[in-house]
Amino acid sequence: MAKGRLRGWWQALRQPTQRYSVLALLVGGMAIGLVGWAALDYGMEATSTEEFCLSCHEMRDNPWPQLQKTSHYSNATGNHATCADCHQPKEFIPKVARKIEASREVWWSLMGLIDTPEKYAAHAPAMKAREIARLRANDSQECRNCHVVERMQLELQSAKAQEYHRAMASNGKTCIDCHTGIAHPDNSGQPVARRE
Q: Is the pTM above the cut of 0.90?
């Protein structure tokens, strides 16, 4: 009985439709799917570069100068966080979801809602609140891609930082709860001092 079903399936795959066999359609569909996946992946990588982010004058004129004043831009070790490092998950599905979310700012730019420093400043608190909520929801995953809490040398930190980092997990806190202004200023427009 099972052999007959298998033969029936194989025959159905080989039987031509009006023009093509089901097998040819499957192979063609898989090829189109692979090409589509590769194009999507290439597009995701191309739109994840600092150059792409800074091609938009709203980003170049507003958050970029703020970032340049922080340790995420210039520091003793020479490490430099890019826009995507902090604002985009590494995993594919969360990255796609984040790209879709971020299209809101692209739309606002195209519609002229954030095209001047004044308009950008007016929308900055809402944009920042959404980003902080996103980071809280994912336990500051983008921070943890670079900062591994278990590898911190607490003895090299200030007493206050040691206290907070030791209590972080037991208090249900995540990186963004204490470091909200680490790469961009608070809503006041003033850069936040680096917290030790």
A: no
